[in-house]
Design brief:
With 478 residues, the protein is mainly alpha-helical. It contains 23 helices and no strands.
């Protein structure tokens, strides 16, 4: 499709609208993909274009990206969680460490906020590790799963953009090199510009700060559904709404005995700390010292270290493999949903959804209004496409020359840079077709749409404040 138009938005609109109306995420995402085939058929007049399986599912699910999802989230993380069920490692860590510093809902949510900041190497990494670790503690103190999912999700990608000791600076720098030659002459200078522009990522700072205040129960405006969830959990002990359907139920009362701690095995802090240390060391050290991203290798090493440690501490190989396989089974629904989300993302790229939305903003924009408009544009694109990185790839190469043409000032360019950086994170954090949104709800035991609808008002408040701040920054400092 060479000339994108409004029809390029149809699949995203179908998927997101049905998800909100029906709360049936699998069906909604699937029908979004089906509608993409109908759009292509209408555009080209060729009925073969309606073959959504051949045109979208096979190309999207046959990519290295989805293979990585299966490797990391289905096998490595699912297997790791299954082994931790057998060893009791994660639960023991949460009980010992979390139990020593938590006394109620406020301190347990603060514990979750701190873990989210610690595990900030990437949005998906943070959501899985923080959610898995803190859930036993917050469940004990009657923290609703909606509250926990919000804390976990809002300390994932937002933190990764303001503490960017990860792959984000190099990725974004590669997108902007040469777009404004005087400011982005090469990759090194572009990375430096990323770091100097962090202070203008108002959404990132406000979102993380609001999450902290919400965890401490001092933020005054939660929204109707989040307030109801908090009251329900505190007064009745019901951590989910009556009609909730969590994708991943962990530690349920009717859990499979095969998932219980192996008889005769004594849980230790080492069962949790050793694999996590292996993961973070391999993920961080090579990147800092040699600019190498070894996240896949880090997760594989993490899983193998958990298996090896369990064996060295006396667990039979049969029990280890039972834990691994049972853990993988619990991830099946999540892997299907992620596969559908990946396909929707592929559809958006093929139909040039983001390109069409960028065209909606012309170049006749006042300088003072551009940062807020860029934030809003990135919010819409990322929400529709479910990805911040994909949004960056489309918007940054256009937004930077546009900002420079309106006002040739490095400080103004930094403000616009921060606006794009934060706006795209909003969509990644809030969209029901985003992997971080899906994983946040999955690993906190929260219904996906309950998470989306309770988090959205808070994130919109943060985004609104961010746009006001970027506008004031232009007014007073440019």
């Amino acid at each position: 499709m060479d000339d994108p138009n409004f029809l390029s938005l149809v699949p995203a609109i179908v998927a997101i609208t049905l998800a909100f109306l029906t709360k049936q995420v699998l069906v909604s995402l699937f029908l979004g993909v089906v509608s993409a085939g109908l759009v292509l058929w209408y555009q080209t007049g060729d009925i073969s274009e309606a073959n959504f399986v051949a045109n979208f599912f096979i190309p999207a699910l046959g990519t290295a990206g989805y293979a990585q999802i299966l490797l990391i989230y289905l096998w490595c993380l699912g297997g790791l969680l299954g082994i931790w069920e057998k060893t009791g490692g994660a639960l023991h860590f949460a009980t010992v460490v979390g139990g020593s510093i938590t006394r109620g809902p406020r301190s347990s949510m603060l514990f979750g906020w701190l873990l989210g900041c610690i595990f900030h190497q990437g949005g998906t990494v943070s959501t899985v590790l923080a959610g898995t670790t803190v859930k036993p503690v917050t469940d004990k103190h009657r923290v609703s799963h909606e509250e926990l999912a919000y804390v976990v999700d809002s300390t994932a990608s937002p933190v990764a953009t303001i503490l960017p000791f990860n792959a984000w600076p190099a990725y974004v720098a590669a997108l902007v090199v040469g777009t404004v030659p005087s400011c982005f002459p090469d990759l090194k200078t572009s990375v430096e510009f990323f770091f100097t522009s962090i202070r203008y990522n108002f959404y990132g700072f406000i979102a993380v700060g609001m999450t902290l205040l919400t965890a401490l129960q001092v933020w005054p405006i939660l929204g109707r559904k989040m307030s109801a969830a908090r009251i329900r959990a505190r007064t009745t002990g019901k951590l989910d709404a009556d009609d909730a359907s969590p994708m991943l139920k962990v530690e349920s009362e009717d859990s499979d005995p095969a998932n219980e701690i192996t008889p005769g095995y004594t849980p230790s802090l080492l069962d949790f700390l050793v694999p996590i240390s292996v993961l973070l060391s391999i993920a961080i050290v090579p990147y800092v010292l040699a600019d190498k991203n070894l996240i896949n290798e880090a997760f594989i090493a993490c899983l193998l270290s958990a298996m090896l440690l369990a064996w060295l501490r006396g667990m039979r190989i049969n029990d280890i493999m039972d834990g691994f396989l049972n853990g993988c089974k619990t991830m099946t629904i999540g892997a299907i949903i992620l596969g559908l989300a990946v396909t929707i993302g592929f559809v958006s790229k093929e139909l040039h959804t983001a390109d069409y939305m960028v065209r909606l903003i012309g170049d006749n924009v006042p300088a003072i209004a551009l940062p807020a408009l860029l934030t809003m544009l990135c919010m819409l694109i990322a929400f529709a496409c479910g990805t911040s990185f994909g949004t960056y790839a489309v918007v940054f190469p256009i937004a930077m020359p546009l900002a420079w043409s309106i006002q040739a000032d490095p400080a103004y360019l930094s403000i616009c840079f921060g606006a794009v950086l934060g706006g795209a994170v909003f969509g990644d954090q809030c969209s029901p077709i985003s992997d971080t949104t899906i994983l946040s709800s999955m690993f906190t035991g929260c219904d996906l749409m309950d998470h989306v609808t309770t988090q959205l008002p808070l994130a919109l408040m943060a985004a609104g404040l961010g746009m006001v701040c970027s506008t004031l920054a232009v007014a007073f400092f440019i």
